[in-house]
Amino acid sequence: MEGEAAYGFIVNVDAQGSGLLSDTEKPEMRRRLYEVTNAAFEQARIRAPRLYQEDRGDGILSVLAADVPPKRVVGEWLEYLHQDLRQINAGLKKPLRLRVGLHIGPVTADAHGRSGRAVDLACRLGDCDTAKAILKAADGSPLVAVASDLLYEDVVLAGGRWVEPDRYRRHEVELKEGRRAAWFTVPGLPQPPDPAAAAETLRPEPPQPHGTGDSFVQNNHHHGSGQFIANGNVDTLNISQYGGDR
């Protein structure tokens, strides 16, 4: 009922790199986003009215009724989404890659949509820097899923149909609400990549000095002997007292 919180399963899906797409590319990205997400829900036998969806521009917020088995979501739905992504991305120059935040908790409905701290957490998890770094490092993988600590302990850890807790890795993440524990998995990989190593790999190279040879002049000090000290290296520069080339 409107205005009353009801327990539900929250699934927030975001498209990685959508901000780099042009206005002419985004409609096709959104079409694929809805196609794979809804196909996975249909394959997992999760349909309205047990499924509520809310458009988020570059993503979709879904809230599932409390009677939807949680293991069906972290098991069947997640695997169907992975396989559907692989199929739709075949041959694409810009494949669709998704980050999925997963949580369970109370959700409040009103005329404008769904809200609550549980909704906020699911959205924050899928949008956190760790999730972005892991997906960037998982070259060739179209999907990373992030489960809240509560969801992992209550649902994932026990395992089940297509639910493999050993494929998850725990990380502490910094969110607006503070530091939280979260569990990451990349379907198709035995373990998700280490985001710290990924961040180091993706770190841009520092700018290199321009010039010829192995030395360059910077922080120079000229001594009367004709010696220059450049960045701690001593070199000799001959200068004619009558001018000319130097």
Q: In brief, what are we looking at here?
A:
With 246 residues, this protein is of the alpha+beta class.
Explain what this protein looks like in three dimensions.
The structure is a single chain. With 246 residues, the protein is an alpha+beta fold. The chain has six helices and eleven strands. Strands 1, 2, 3, 4, 5, 6, 7 and 8 form an eight-stranded mixed beta sheet that branches. Strands 9-10-11 form a three-stranded antiparallel beta sheet, with no helix packed on it. Strand 9 (220-222) and strand 10 form a beta hairpin. Helix 1 packs across helix 2 (70-89) and helix 4 crosses helix 6. The chain starts with a strand and ends in a 10-residue tail after the last strand.
Architecture blueprint of SSEs:
Blueprint: E1 5-15, H1 26-43, E2 51-55, E3 59-64, H2 70-89, E4 98-110, E5 113-115, H3 117-127, H4 129-137, E6 143-148, H5 149-156, E7 169-175, E8 178-185, H6 195-202, E9 220-222, E10 227-230, E11 233-236
Parallel strand pairs: 4-6
Antiparallel strand pairs: 1-3, 1-4, 2-3, 4-5, 6-8, 7-8, 9-10, 10-11
Task: Supply database-style keywords.
single chain, 246 residues, alpha+beta, 3-stranded antiparallel beta sheet, 30% helix, globular, disordered C terminus
For the secondary structure, the number of strands is 11
- The N- to C-terminal Cα distance equals 84 Å
Gyration radius, in Å: 26 Å
**Mean model confidence by pLDDT:** 85
Number of helices: 6
Strand content: 25-35%
Note the overall shape: globular
Q: Note the run of SSEs as H and E.
A: EHEEHEEHHEHEEHEEE
Helix content: 25-40%
Structural class, judged by helices and strands? alpha+beta
Q: Which residue ranges are poorly predicted, with pLDDT under 50 across at least 5 consecutive positions? A: 211-220, 228-246
Q: Tell me about the largest β-sheet.
A: 8 strands, mixed
